[in-house]
Amino acid sequence: MGARLVVGTQWGDEGKAKVIDYLSDGVDVIARYQGGANAGHTVEVDGETYIFHLIPSGILYPNTVCVLGNGVALDPWAFQEELDDLKERGIDPMDRLVISDACHVIMPLHRILDGLWENKKGDNKIGTTKRGIGICYADKMMRIGLRMGEMINEAKLKERLPQILEIKNRELKDLHGEPGIEFEPLFQELMAHGDKLKKAVRNTSVFLNNELKSGKTVLLEGAQGTALDIDFGTYPYVTSSNTTTGGAITGSGISFQHLERVTGICKAYVTRVGEGPFPSELFGEEGEKLRSLGKEYGATTGRPRRCGWFDSELVRHAARVNGLTDLALTKLDILSDYDEIHIGTGYELDGQAIEEFPSCRLEETKVTYETMPGWKEDISKARSLSDLPAKCRAYVDRLVELTGVPVSIISVGPGRKDTILL
């Protein structure tokens, strides 16, 4: 069997967790390949709501193994909170968790520095969640990071941690005027976390490839979306990792030859959290209406999401960068309250139509729109395409035409059953 990748096509918050949960039924292994505890994935099952930050949402299926790949930035403190919350709800995931020994570890110093650097930027702030992810990835690239395989080895941790603290404490003291981090308390905390997690730590690239060779199915899960990719997103207002198909390969250690499908998740409209350009954004009462209807507030921070009409050029960009085979269209039910629905069909820059998602100057683009009639009917009970009103089906068909990618899944509500499989 092969691997299927689920990737966000917008600025994250597309409803990946619900789709991943839906697709996880019958899947043997789910692997997270990038990001950290800065993204919240919300799943509703049997009337209960679960919010995941690091653990793949497929953990709710009792026979599914969940992997945190080498591309993940793992915060042991946040991870333990998530484990404890699941245990309180009757789920003990440790026997079904596999953690890469090459995961980079987020420490308190990363969170401190994240906040300090963000505050120094003033009006030019990125809108980071201040969870330390960007600082951790920066240390990874500077070759001064700590990896899980080192954290669980007392001798190696005792060797590496002083080297790291020498550099990071100099940054804290000399650049920010803040006190440094003491070695012994941090060492003891890391060792305590390492003792709890060490049985799950291994070479996940070998594990995943062996599972695929033995005929198992693997679902790859990322955080955020294409427009937040460090290379292909709205730089510098992006996350600090590759959220796209390329990131799935490097962050999991499996070959692209194993990928059979790449499913792009997109909302029937668009949202964004944090700073940065957003061409189809709605403001004032229009933006607040869509936010209220969709309950658009960040799962991690609670921040209100910025909302706008569907942006076809954004999804065409995602299709090109990721090699999308199909789309999962989420929150279609939210648009049921509108008499008219607008769709962004393309961009203009300097008065000329452009057929691309600009790497720079996106904030200067103007969106061209077309208008379609709304369906003004509750579609939350629809379980097949024929259950949808004709005007709703026409909207879906138009999105397929504009993006060039077929729709395979339509979500009409937060629950597992609120899904149409095409």
Protein traits:
single chain; 422 residues; alpha/beta; Adenylosuccinate Synthetase, Chain A, domain 1; Adenylosuccinate Synthetase, subunit A, domain 2; Adenylosuccinate Synthetase, Chain A, domain 3; 3 domains; ten-stranded mixed β-sheet; 12 helices; 33% helix; globular
Percent of residues in beta strands: 15-25%
CATH superfamily of the largest domain: Adenylosuccinate Synthetase, subunit A, domain 1
End-to-end C-alpha gap = 22 Å
CATH class category name of the largest domain: Alpha Beta
Radius of gyration: 22 Å
| Average pLDDT rating | 93
Shape: globular
CATH level 3 topology of the largest domain: Adenylosuccinate Synthetase, Chain A, domain 1
Strand order within the widest sheet? 9-7-5-2-10-1-11-15-19-20
Tally of individual helices: 12
Give the total of domains.
3
Helix content: 25-40%
Gross CATH architecture of the largest domain: 3-Layer(aba) Sandwich
Helical/strand content category: alpha/beta
Largest sheet: 10 strands, mixed
Count of β-strands: 20
- The low-confidence runs, each spanning 5 or more residues with pLDDT under 50, are none
